[in-house]
Amino acid sequence: MSAVVDHDNPAAGLAGPVLGDGDFQFLRTFVYRHCGIALSEQKHQLVQGRLARRLRALGLKDFGAYCELLRTEPERELGELASAISTNVTAFFREVHHFEALANEMLPRWLEQKRREGDRLRIWSAGCSSGEEPYSLAMVLAEALERCGRNVDAKILATDLSPAALAAAQKGVYPVERLDGVSAERRRRWFLRGEGEYAGLACVHPKLRELTTIAPLNLLHAWPMQGPFDAIFCRNVVIYFDQPTKQKLFHRFAGLLPTGAPLFLGHSESMHGLSDEFELIGRTIYRKRSA
């Protein structure tokens, strides 16, 4: 999800319907239970402003009607609610040291170990936002596969809760200025530049799409995949969870990783005091310990 609560305009939407204390408390509980995000009392006006847009989109007259929709059909609106109260912050090759470690140390070793033709390699981008992270991973993976010259069944799973973020990731089209973190060589190789009415846009190369599967997933709910994954990226997501939620999530991640496999967190996230199943091996890079 790579989501942060929006601080840019906390007074937005105050001229519309008023979010009463009872409805706000219901929304706080609902968002925490279903999304893992703890909303403080100070977020009252912010939530009112952000969700006023959803009321207009749904044709609802007040927040009571919106809360009733969540009570009766929670899954229908969950993704839109998550999108409304959060802002997806991401970039190509964000925290570049993670991708350097993957390209220079981990992928060469893994591909050498997968000697049998058709061996599988799986990386999970958990909280993929609008696709910049998984497509960055796909570039690194595609280049590593070319260097190794071996037939490996390699795929990246990219998941998020936000329908808007997933739609952008599926589309794979970005303003050229969003490619600032991509080297000139990779821009030429992995992006198709738009012309005419599409000038100023760039589309990811079809080969990157072939390596990437994008799907909706709530990290707090059941996971359909069984693993194992060779690596998991879950960056700038858990910082907004409370301690018990983080502990449960780290334990679940450990269940999908073999011993020695890495879990990548965001620059301001840490497992300190939260899990004894991982050990720190680099800048916000953790490795699953042996049992």
TrEMBL record:
Gene Ontology molecular function: any one: protein-glutamate O-methyltransferase activity
Enzyme class: transferase
Protein's UniProt keywords contain S-adenosyl-L-methionine: yes
Residue ranges occupied by any CheR-type methyltransferase domain in the UniProt entry: 19-291
Top-level lineage group: Bacteria
Gene3D superfamilies: Chemotaxis receptor methyltransferase CheR, N-terminal domain, Vaccinia Virus protein VP39
Keyword match Transferase: yes
Key words, A-Z: Methyltransferase, S-adenosyl-L-methionine, Transferase
Pfam families: CheR (PF01739), CheR_N (PF03705)
Residues that bind S-adenosyl-L-methionine: N88, T90, R94, E133, D160, N218, L219, R235, N236
Catalytic activity of the protein: L-glutamyl-[protein] + S-adenosyl-L-methionine = [protein]-L-glutamate 5-O-methyl ester + S-adenosyl-L-homocysteine
Known EC number: 2.1.1.80
PROSITE patterns per record: CHER
InterPro entries per record: Bact_Chemotaxis_MeTrfase, Chemotaxis_MeTrfase_CheR, CheR_C, CheR_MeTrfase, CheR_N, CheR_N_sf, SAM-dependent_MTases_sf
GO terms, biological process: methylation
Record function comment: Methylation of the membrane-bound methyl-accepting chemotaxis proteins (MCP) to form gamma-glutamyl methyl ester residues in MCP.
UniProt name for this protein: Chemotaxis protein methyltransferase
Organism: Frateuria terrea
Lineage: Bacteria, Pseudomonadati, Pseudomonadota, Gammaproteobacteria, Lysobacterales
